[in-house]
Write a structure and sequence with these properties.
This protein has 281 residues and is of the alpha+beta class. It has helices at residues 2-10, 12-17, 48-67, 161-166, 197-216; strands at residues 20-24, 28-33, 74-83, 92-101, 105-114, 119-129, 169-174, 177-182, 222-232, 241-251, 254-263, 269-280.
Length: 281
Amino acid sequence: MESVRHWIEKSPYAAALGVECVEVGPDAARLALPFRVENSNPGDALHGGVAASLCAIGGQAVTRAALGPDSGPWHTCGLQVNYLSAALGEAVTAEARLLRKGKALCFVEIDVATEAGKPIAHATSALRGRFGAEPGEPSLVAPDHGGSDPGRMGPHLGAVPFIGARGIRVEHMTGGTSRLVMPFAETNADASGGLHEGAVLALLDTTGAMAAWAESGHGRYKASTPAMQAQIVAPPPGEDLVGYGRCVQRDGEIFFGEVELATRPGARLVARGTVIYRILT
């Protein structure tokens, strides 16, 4: 269990967030995250990418403990996160529980809540231990339309504390599509030397959200991510990522987006998913 605890607390990304390992075992793990402005949206609301990161870390912690230290490398091949309410200037905890262990797959449920018990997010995940197996032949992500209009909102995204800390910048954000870039940096890294899955999920969430804003247009609106689904196809490499987002459907205040994340350069698929985003006028 000490190796799992070391991975949690010594990964530069998790350390940048301030994640603490309270307890870890083959059936469950408990994480704590003190409030930090650097993990927030405006108004001290916990960024959805941070909640998703806690879900990914909790799932991996249980999987590593359940399958054993020789079962790596590991990755979250499927994750569904539902965001239940906002944490406003509050510390949160994450409770991860093993639902079922197979030979190479583990199924884990994770709950994120405030210290007072208010539910913040609920996730279920399927995680894979590769037992030394190399990733399959990577799929290549086709480039988008090539536009480079960040719109009125895009240039200011870096002012959001959590986004600025990741180095994420907007290249395009109009016409219902978005393109965001996240550099490989120390504060986005895993202890293995690759990108941390939490940083990958943060980019996926943000890319999908910006596609929704690109569809709705700029305004002084309230917005949030009710749900996100992600597939990380292999342990993320230590490379810059580009996110391509597309709003595929709008139903009133609800926006349905598709996202692909690829290496830059190389255009190798790293993750894909869907983001449901809500914008209230």
